[in-house]
Design brief:
Number of strands: 0
Largest sheet: none
Length: 227
């Protein structure tokens, strides 16, 4: 469907669109920071997990591979089901793996949970893109929204490098911080998706159309707009 003809399915969020965009942006800030933070954490992290300095780039690569390989399949899954289950899966995997990385020891376990963290990041990324690309914030151009999105990702990468270098021996706190920060991004998204689904269900019940769909719009037109 041509861009100019795409329906503004983000209108289903009403005045909550900006809150949703901010929560999605925060989730991607955390995803980007999670990719880079381990590279500068230093000897305390390496000693706790039996890692050589030359292995730290692999910790980034494992995360990035899981993110890159799973983001598209999860994006396609969102087009077939509602985004809420994928969002909840991403939040759970990202938080649980972040905590697990502070508790386990040994290189195999460390790399395994980095891969799980990347899988959670993939689910968060797929959900965030599906929601943001379906938004229509007072007619703002999508290229401006995506430019701001790119700036958030770059800021997240830089913040991860800085935090990793600063925490030193207290590197576990940098990973534990993912718990409240992910909740800050995830709770508004879950609540908005549930309230939107409930409103659409009420409308569908009155019109006889049913309350299913993507959660940001109904029908094929909505899925195209979120593609």
């Amino acid at each position: 469907m041509p861009r100019a003809e795409r329906p503004a399915v983000g209108g289903g969020f009403g005045g909550e669109g900006r809150v949703l965009y901010a929560a999605c942006a925060l989730s991607q800030f955390l995803v980007a920071a999670g990719a880079s933070v381990v590279t500068t954490m230093g000897p305390a992290l390496r000693e706790a997990n039996g890692l050589r300095a030359s292995w730290l780039p692999w910790a980034v690569l494992v995360y990035a591979l899981a993110l890159g390989l799973l983001a598209l399949p999860l994006r396609l899954l969102i087009r077939r089901i509602r985004p809420l289950p994928v969002l909840i899966l991403g939040l759970w995997l990202f938080v649980q793996s972040s905590v697990a990385l502070t508790l386990v020891s040994g290189a195999p376990a460390f790399f395994a949970f980095r891969a799980v963290q990347g899988a959670g990041a993939a689910a968060l990324t797929a959900t965030a893109f599906a929601l943001v690309l379906a938004l229509d914030l007072d007619g703002q151009r999508s290229d401006r929204l995506l430019l701001a999105w790119s700036a958030v990702v770059v800021a997240g990468l830089g913040a991860g490098l800085v935090v990793g270098a600063v925490v030193g021996a207290e590197w576990r706190w940098a990973l534990w911080a993912n718990v409240p920060l992910t909740a800050t991004a995830g709770v508004p998204l879950v609540r908005l998706l549930r309230s939107t689904r409930r409103r659409k269900g009420e409308v569908g019940a009155r019109t006889g159309d049913g309350g299913g769909g993507l959660g940001v719009g109904q029908g094929d037109g909505a899925q195209d707009a979120a593609a």
